[in-house]
């Protein structure tokens, strides 16, 4: 739910600074006092979330709330954030989608210092680029389902651009998140919704060989993670405040998939979503779609024109997940009754819809190829993931790819597994330039779903000195090898 800075300061116990400053607070003394205060304070601690009156979960949160407070920052204006860690374990806070130095970015793999257990770090940085970003924990959880993204450590960030286009009446932030995780073997995640859908024969053969080899060893499947509860903004469907709208209103939804492992979908019966930004970056070709799909950590900003009065469910297409909470009620003024859900017609998600038709990507200076593969149940029953044959090694900090500052790189990513991988690059934005053999240009993201047995090209300019982490954003994959570093001299 939207929260402005004044509310946030009040909630954070800093009300004295948010209101009118006392008369005595003037001159140098006031400047010093203000400089000693952070703009925002985040406190990491174990707490409770009331998903529904009969469903309260205990997890780790920012400021005892889910999601963490919306941080509204201004592009280019320095901000100071104090992060306190009241837990017994070191933490990392990653500023997802921003271009920040290694010291602040929030990944131990790059060299960001930990926020010590029962300690704090003061972070000062210049936010950017403008748009919908977020912050989240960035620690390795492995088999501990209380840690990493399995916890409730997720919060939205909105960096106000210098010029806001503003063709909408109001903004609503929605964070999608599951709770009460458990280990399972096998799942039923949707896999056939991506377009283009063509698989590469060579990748398929390689994946099937790996599966046969693991079957021969008697280790066919590694663990997956399932969840007992599903929620939007920490409330199960029907248990939070509905999204109250008026006929004709244009509502800009900023949707974040804060899941550790799940791909999410959303539909609102009788309405369409005009997608204006992906991962916070305006798309070249805003387009209306009936269904949204988001891999872990992806964001979609979409305008919905409220032109079908009623009481509706804005919810996930997966019946099991929606009935266990993944949705929110949209209620028009003066309308009453049971919220209605109507299953949408089949719809395939294709990033190319939002690209400039006919545009071609600039040629890169260099090509880096990576092949991702799965070794079934190879680490204590968990799948091991490799990049060009090597799982990530924290001691050696490998695999590592050397980059030259200012050069433009094309990453050619080959997926020799049947899973979809939401691939994320820290500290940069990349441009999608080829999806399953089809060229595209102009869509800029920081996470993109790579389909099973498919290849994808993404281009970026190496403009951040030091190490930048590149990984699959599925917690279960990144924790078991699916990470690499770029080293920019
Ligand atoms: Cu993955």
Structure write-up:
This protein has helices at about 5-10, 15-20, 25-35, 100-105, 200-215, 320-325, 475-480, and strands at about 40-50, 55-60, 70-75, 80-85, 95, 120-125, 130-135, 155-160, 170-185, 225-230, 245, 250-255, 265, 275-280, 280-290, 290-295, 300-305, 310-315, 325-330, 365-380, 380-385, 400-405, 410-415, 420-425, 430-435, 440, 445, 445-450, 455-460, 465-470, 485-489. It is mostly beta strands and about 500 residues long. Strands 20, 21, 23, 25, 26, 27 and 29 form a 7-stranded mixed beta sheet that branches. A 6-stranded mixed beta sheet has the order 10-9-12-17-14-15, with no helix packed on it. A 5-stranded mixed beta sheet has the order 22-31-30-24-28. Copper (II) ion binds near residues 421, 472, 474, 477 and 482.
Structure summary, number of beta strands: 31
Main sheet overview? 7 strands, mixed
Give the class from helix and strand content and strand pairing: mainly beta
Report the total helices: 7
* Mean pLDDT metric: 92
Percent of residues in β-strands: 35-45%
Question: Key terms for this structure?
Answer:
seven-stranded mixed beta sheet; mainly beta; 31 strands; binds copper (II) ion; 489 residues; disordered N terminus; six-stranded mixed beta sheet; single chain
């Amino acid at each position: 739910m939207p929260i402005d800075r004044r509310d946030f300061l009040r909630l954070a116990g800093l009300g004295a600074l948010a209101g009118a400053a006392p008369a005595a607070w003037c001159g140098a003394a006031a400047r010093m006092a203000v400089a000693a205060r952070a703009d925002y304070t985040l406190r990491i601690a174990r707490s409770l979330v009331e998903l529904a009156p009969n469903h309260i979960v205990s997890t780790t949160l920012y400021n005892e709330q889910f999601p963490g407070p919306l941080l509204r920052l201004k592009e280019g204006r320095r901000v100071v954030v104090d992060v306190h860690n009241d837990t017994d374990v070191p933490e990392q806070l990653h500023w997802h989608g921003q271009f920040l130095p290694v010291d602040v970015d929030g990944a131990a793999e790059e060299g960001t210092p930990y926020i010590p257990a029962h300690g704090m770090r003061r972070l000062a940085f210049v936010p950017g680029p403008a748009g919908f970003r977020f912050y989240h924990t960035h620690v390795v959880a492995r088999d501990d389902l209380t840690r990493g993204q399995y916890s409730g450590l997720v919060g939205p960030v909105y960096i106000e651009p210098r010029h806001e286009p503003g063709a909408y009446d109001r903004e609503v932030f929605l964070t999608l998140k599951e709770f009460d995780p458990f280990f399972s073997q096998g799942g039923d995640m949707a896999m056939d919704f991506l377009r283009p859908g063509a698989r590469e024969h060579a990748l398929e053969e390689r994946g099937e060989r790996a599966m046969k080899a693991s079957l021969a060893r008697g280790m066919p499947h590694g663990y997956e993670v399932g969840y007992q509860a599903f929620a939007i903004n920490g409330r199960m469907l029907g248990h939070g405040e509905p999204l109250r709208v008026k006929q004709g209103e244009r509502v800009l939804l900023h949707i974040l998939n804060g899941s550790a492992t799940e791909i999410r979908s959303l539909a609102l019966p009788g309405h369409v979503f005009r997608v204006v930004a992906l991962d916070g970056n305006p798309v070249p070709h805003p387009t209306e779609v009936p269904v949204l799909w988001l891999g872990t950590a992806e964001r979609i900003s979409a305008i919905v024109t409220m032109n079908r009065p009623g009481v509706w469910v804005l919810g996930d297409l997966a019946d099991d997940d929606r009935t266990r909470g993944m949705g929110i009620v949209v209620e028009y003024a003066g309308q009453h009754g049971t919220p209605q859900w109507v299953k949408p017609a089949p719809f395939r998600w294709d990033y190319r819809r939002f690209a400039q038709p006919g545009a071609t990507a600039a040629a890169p200076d260099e090509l880096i190829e990576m092949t991702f593969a799965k070794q079934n149940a190879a680490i204590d029953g968990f799948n091991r993931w490799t990049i060009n044959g090597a799982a990530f090694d924290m001691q050696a900090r490998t695999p590592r790819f050397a980059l030259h500052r200012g050069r433009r790189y094309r990453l050619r990513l080959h997926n020799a597994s049947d899973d979809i991988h939401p691939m994320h690059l820290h500290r940069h934005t990349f441009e999608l330039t080829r999806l399953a053999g089809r060229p595209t240009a102009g869509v800029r993201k920081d996470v993109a779903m790579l389909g099973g047995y498919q290849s994808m090209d993404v281009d970026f300019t190496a403009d951040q000195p030091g190490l930048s982490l590149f990984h699959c954003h599925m917690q279960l994959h990144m924790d078991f090898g699916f990470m690499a570093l770029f080293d920019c001299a």
